[in-house]
Specification:
The protein has helices at about 5-15, 30-35, 50-60, 75-85, 110-125, 140-155, 185-195, 205-220, 235-245, 255-260, 265-275, 305-310, 325-335, 360-365; strands at about 20, 40-45, 65-70, 95-100, 130-135, 155-160, 200-205, 225-230, 250-255, 280-285, 285-290, 295, 315-320, 340-345. It is α/β, with parallel strands linked by helices.
């Protein structure tokens, strides 16, 4: 196991002092460490391609090497700027990629991570990116050599980091103040009680899909059918739009703030398509909660003005429990595309499980 301070020594020694990326649970202790830095030294990006692009801009103005952190499933988002801008046959931009290696051969993982984990080393090879695997403190020497290689040859390099490599941070004390905001689970429970019997729910990755699955099962609420986006963060709204265009049934998308911001332009497509049977829910806690609770910067966005300006017919908002049942009812009975923003508190079930038998879930959803 490696301590965060050991990695920081290597980065400081090699004058790597700017960090940007998308939070990942494998790298949680590292991204927690970056939270104390100023905006000039650390920026949480909305997606991995944006993180790489921020790093490119940093190099262009400082001549120094940026550090970009991400989960390996986000490599797909990062390929465009890595290949078409940073590659040594284009602009030849040096950078260090710290990649949380979900689904590595040494760790049991979920189906959506296993395939990605298996192809991650091959993907880096196809991208012509030299990499090392960080497991123990001695591997930091390999990392330092890679950084020197990046400096000398002006190319991106990468470090794959498996689950459990870094020491865990001590748990933060929970605030004694009780939140007046709705809890995610309370909102989902009421939604399932009110949805039309023939409705289809498409839910974003993370705690949202996992809680929806758990509440369905435990409360025996079977109106409507679910498709859980166990992967593909940021794409639940477009899956929902695609489904809505080819059915008369109600399509309900349950989105998260981190997911929505990752591909924000998608909501313009919904507004333009004007599918009358699509209902878009944003569960907003300004947090990448399932990977560590880092901020998403969603706080302060006026989603009412945003959604109305790009073509949504209706906007609803829930802040407290007051009249939240009637607001859900009005939202469900409105003509789409409709948008419901729900401000929620952080927190989830203990020992929250994950959906299993994904192909069976798909068939049930489609039938």
């Amino acid at each position: 196991m490696i301590q965060t301070k050991d990695l920081r020594k290597i980065l400081n020694k090699n004058k790597i002092n700017f960090f940007t990326g998308v939070p990942d649970s494998v790298l949680k202790s590292l991204s927690d460490h970056f939270q104390s830095y100023s905006k000039k030294k650390h920026i949480i990006a909305v997606n991995e391609g944006s993180a790489v692009s921020i790093g490119i801009g940093y190099h262009l103005s400082s001549k120094k090497i940026p550090c970009i952190y991400l989960q390996n499933s986000g490599l797909g988002n990062a390929i465009n700027p890595l290949v078409s801008v940073a590659h040594n046959k284009v602009y030849s931009i040096p950078m260090l990629l710290l990649i949380g290696w979900r689904g590595s051969m040494n760790n049991k993982d979920e189906p959506q991570h296993i395939t990605q984990g298996k192809i991650t080393p091959d993907l880096l090879k196809l991208l012509n990116i030299n990499y090392c695997i960080l497991k123990r403190k001695d591997d930091l020497k390999k990392l330092e050599k890679l950084i020197q290689f990046s400096k000398k040859n002006f190319v991106p390099v990468a470090c794959l980091i498996e689950k459990g490599t870094f020491e865990r941070n001590l748990k933060k004390k929970k605030s004694s103040k009780k939140s007046t905001l709705l809890k995610r689970k309370d909102f989902i429970l009421e939604l399932l009680r009110q949805v039309p019997k023939s409705s289809k729910i498409i839910s974003t990755t993370g705690y949202t899909s996992r809680e929806l699955h758990k509440i369905r099962k435990e409360k025996k609420l079977f109106k409507g059918r679910d498709f859980y986006m166990v992967g593909g963060m940021g794409h639940s709204s477009m899956v929902s739009l695609g489904a809505s265009l080819h059915t008369k049934k109600e399509i309900i998308c349950i989105d998260g703030d981190g997911s929505l911001l990752m591909h924000l332009g998608s909501i313009r497509t919904i507004g333009f398509a004007k599918s009358p049977n699509i209902k878009h829910i944003l569960l907003n806690n300004n947090s990448h909660e399932s990977v560590g609770g880092q901020k998403t910067y969603a706080q302060g966005i006026n989603f009412k003005k945003l959604t109305e300006s790009i073509g949504y017919r209706h906007y609803f908002k829930l802040i407290k429990k007051n009249k939240f049942k009637s607001t859900i009812s009005k939202f469900l009975n409105s003509k789409g595309p409709s948008f419901l923003e729900v401000l929620i508190s952080k927190g989830s079930f203990d020992n929250l499980g994950r959906p299993k038998n994904l192909k069976k879930i798909k068939k049930f959803f489609m039938n």
